[in-house]
């Protein structure tokens, strides 16, 4: 299992937080996700044999938010 913190721009409310969490959770291979609205970050645990950081970041972008490096 791999753990990663992703910084996200554009989340303004609880609905945004839930949208991002759902988008990440729907990526095959993601085991756990916790999105913090205050810090604008997502803590993600995933199986690197199934998915990778790029796929998770793509899901965030497709949900309408920006991943910050």
UniProtKB/TrEMBL annotation:
Domain (HMA) ranges: 2-68
GO biological-process terms attached to the record: copper ion transport
Keyword Metal-binding: yes
Pfam family, one: HMA
Keywords assigned: Metal-binding
Keyword Nuclease: no
Single GO MF annotation: copper ion binding
Gene3D superfamilies for this protein: 3.30.70.100
Highest taxon of the lineage: Archaea
Transmembrane segments: none
Name of this protein: Copper chaperone CopZ
Species, as recorded: Methanolobus chelungpuianus
């Amino acid at each position: 299992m791999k753990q990663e913190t992703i910084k996200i721009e554009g989340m303004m409310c609880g609905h945004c937080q839930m949208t991002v969490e759902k988008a990440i959770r729907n990526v095959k291979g993601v085991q756990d996700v916790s999105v913090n609205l205050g810090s604008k970050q997502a803590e993600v645990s995933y199986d690197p044999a199934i998915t990778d950081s790029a796929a998770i970041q793509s899901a965030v972008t497709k949900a309408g938010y920006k991943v910050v490096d």
